[in-house]
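Onboarding guide, step 5: your first structure request.
Type a short instruction followed by the sequence, for example:

Predict the 3D structure of this protein.
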Amino acid sequence: MADQIDSLVIGHLRHIRKTVEATAPDLVDVKARMPAMAGTLGHVLTQLAVINGGVDRVEERLGRVERRLELADAWLLDG
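The system replies with structure tokens like these:
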């Protein structure tokens, strides 16, 4: 009975080893791609900051136009 359990455990361990060995190359590929993805994410975040700055400037200009045309108070009452 103990021999059967040992054989079963050894069989499972061999299967686990095969799975780990098959997964290892994929992990190497993932590790190689991570720096490129981090760089791309940094670029996207930089561009998002630039866009947000532009939106802020447009909001400021729109506020000045509303004040000049005396629309700011009406807009606040509508909201």
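Each response can be followed by summary notes, for example: DSSP finds two helices and no strands in the chain.
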